[in-house]
Design goal:
1 helix, globular, two-stranded antiparallel sheet
């Protein structure tokens, strides 16, 4: 068992070394409220702020023709340290990205999560926040 735990610790360290972005994860704590000015707000709490990584994956065999439009099915994963927890519907914002500055400010909603016994990271599938 100690060999397994050692290998897992090394794998987690390597996975975290690739997490060069920084993100904030927020969770709604109450209902959406529209103020007298017509602005809609929802109270949230920050449940995580720290290192992360985005990874888009495509299944090119999943190309679909819809009418005259051709679509390629892609999914975007959020990769976090293995001990970080989140919930489906939490909101993720990329707050820093030294290697991909265009990602800063990108916002997503967590749609689902990967569950794994010997995971080197905690992963979630992201969608557009309005999705």
């Amino acid at each position: 068992m100690s060999a397994l735990l050692g290998a897992l610790a090394r794998g987690r360290a390597r996975a975290e070394a690739l997490m060069t972005d920084t993100c904030r994860i927020e969770r709604a704590t109450g209902p959406r409220v529209t103020g007298p000015d017509g602005q809609s707000t929802q109270p949230v709490e920050t449940v995580y702020e720290g290192k992360c990584r985005l990874q888009s994956r495509g299944d090119w065999s999943a190309e679909r023709d819809i009418g005259e439009a051709g679509l390629v099915m892609l999914r975007t994963e959020l990769q976090l340290p293995a001990d970080v927890t989140f919930k489906v519907n939490d909101i993720v914002m990329i707050t820093a990205s030294p290697t991909q500055p265009a990602n800063v400010g990108s916002t997503f909603r967590i749609r689902s999560e990967f569950v794994k016994t010997h995971g080197t990271m905690h992963k979630g599938i992201l969608i557009d926040p309005a999705g």
